[in-house]
Design a protein that fits this description.
The protein has 9 helices and 2 strands, in the order H-E-E-H-H-H-H-H-H-H-H. By secondary structure, the chain is mainly alpha-helical.
Length: 283
Amino acid sequence: MAVTNPSAKPATAVQVKKSSNAISYLAPIICIVVGYVVWRFVLGNPSGFDKLKEPGWFWPTYEGPKNALNKMYLGGIIVPILIGCFLTVVTFCVERLLTILKASGTSSNADFIRKVQYHLANKNVDAAIAECDKQKGSVGNVMKAGLHRYKEMTTNTELSTDQKVMAIQKEVEEATSLELPMLEKNLVFLSTIASVATLLGLLGTVLGMIRSFSNLGEQGGGDAARELSVGISEALYNTALGIGTSAISIIMYNIFTTKIDGITYGIDESGFTLTQSFASLYK
């Protein structure tokens, strides 16, 4: 009769997710490029201005904007960077939303854990595993990994109850360590943009005001004062765009972290459920 090696460990139900982060790093670059295209060819469309003052492919100078979008173009070269930041926030918000919705599972974590507790109380581990397959999500994945170890420990006669509980707990911790990085991935971009976007907006405003006051010193007179007021209003578009992008980034970051905290709580509760159930039923 073959002897079971107590140290042999089954593969965890949650496998390592091998995914390159190259796409995450390319996304902001692509968004900035798209931001420049929007700024240069949409906001800076010649049809939206009365006349071209200075020709140039990268940053031609126009006068007489016909609407607010055309005025945003006159905000300067920081505007396309801010548009790129806004597009980056939108991109990662959509990506994180889809990931967290998938990680949340198909039903309430509280209801799912109650069902698992019911099956474990009846010593029906297979039914509990079936509930994990229905639930899916991060809590379901971690619970399933723990239940496979749980099932193995019910037939193990070589370890003490405390050792078996520790083995189940270790399995849950390893499964958790594979799930949490996937949940928190790319949030750093939102937190960074939340801080940087406002500073970029202020930088664009300062550069615009420097240009406006420089023109005031060169021209003088009533026309120069009018040009100064126009230049300041154009420069303030940078501040508005930067603050708006930062606000959206902060709000979405807080929403996502709150959702992740809820999933993490469900994972912790699932581990506690498994260890307490085993300790009470298989003394």
